[in-house]
Amino acid sequence: MTNGIVIVGAGHAGVQAAASLREEGYDGPVILIGDEQELPYHKPPLSKTFIKDAAAKPQPLRGEAFYTGSSIDFRPGTRIDSIDARAGRLDVAGGSPLAFDRLILATGSRPRVLKLDGAELAGVVSLRSIADARLIRELSAKTEDVVILGGGFIGLEIAATLRAAARNVTVVEAVDRLLGRAVAPVIASHVRQRLEAIGVRILTETTVARLEGENGRVSAAIMSTGERLPAQMVIIGIGVVPNVELAQGAGLAIANGIRVDQHMQSSIAEILAIGDAASYRHWFTGGDVRLESVQNATDQARLAARTIGGHAEPFSAVPWFWSDIGDMKLQMVGLTQGGDHHVVLGDLADNKFSIYHYAGNRLLGIESVNRPADHMLGRKMLGAGFSPTPQMVATGPEGLKAAFAAFSQGEPARAAG
Length: 417
What we know:
The model is unreliable at 412-417 (pLDDT under 50). The chain has 12 helices and 26 strands. It has helices at residues 12-23, 49-52, 64-69, 130-140, 153-164, 185-197, 245-249, 294-309, 372-384, 390-394, 397-408, 412-416; strands at 5-8, 30-33, 72-75, 80-84, 89-92, 98-99, 102-105, 109-111, 124-126, 145-149, 168-173, 201-204, 208-214, 217-223, 228-230, 233-236, 240-242, 258-259, 271-273, 278-281, 288-289, 320-325, 328-334, 341-347, 352-359, 362-369. Helices cover 27% and strands 29% of the residues. By secondary structure, it is an alpha/beta fold. The protein has 3 domains: 5-110 and 241-309, FAD/NAD(P)-binding domain; 113-238, FAD/NAD(P)-binding domain, CATH 3.50.50.60; 327-416, FAD/NAD-linked reductase, C-terminal dimerisation domain (Enolase-like, domain 1, 2-Layer Sandwich), CATH 3.30.390.30.
């Protein structure tokens, strides 16, 4: 009897992998292992709607009937201690060993630990799971002053949400701008301006020296400048680290994540890795990346299932991301590192604009604020391999759509005009 496929990690990547295996016709055993007791759920709402609504419940990725109806053996609250790759076996904490023919690691990532005096105080939290979101929601109901360490997407989403609930919110970022790894300076500046306009205080080029507490609970954050910020809750959002320990212990190659090839196979072919924990050579940029997004997780999961089915093409999905921060829907497509100039469409003052990033005449990616049509067209263009010139972009959405239509119809000469 076949041992089947075991998937470790029941987030977006793991659940999609299980679903895609069945969609691809795999009829052997599929075991999905999650370390939480919850039915797998959507994570993006946790920093927004969930923490502001006391009645909000987790949004399941799939209904319970999906797992039983698809013969997927979902095992919540299960932790894997180690992988014996040679024997094809997992050592399960408190349980019997589990054999596998193929293993998919969808182990995700975890919040980076803050090494700071006072970090152990009650009221100092990070957001990664539904349990974290419940705690933030509970604490915010009895909190006036919140300090958020880290000016990335998660920190700013929470800042906007809690400020809308009339909390006093201060964001502390160590570098000179917000969203330093994620978006262009003009987007970061715009986000800062909009947040400050609603009363979020933002401190850049500043760090926290220590946290103070009373009766075991956090009461203040002491800045490197000596300023004392009252805080009944401190939220840590200084990035994440990939969960590679199981893979590393099994002897898999590690390079800022579990190293995989263009078919999602690790250095041991029977073990695949997908999602936040996987690093790979990106087809578009030629550089090594590890992407933290729902889209990347689900696209890689689908490809992993096809790889196991024996008919996979190299990974070539166009990366895209999004974030809702207050009244700003940020949507990004492509990877813009290495860009040397850009074109702006729309008006920053209207809070509706897009930035088209170029390296020479090659379109690298588009960052949009409240212009979803630009984003959707950008996904189609990059996916089709169409790189409009900056002059085409400058003609506006209608001209750009016409140029792409001409390209799609196999008329590059007309499109170039």
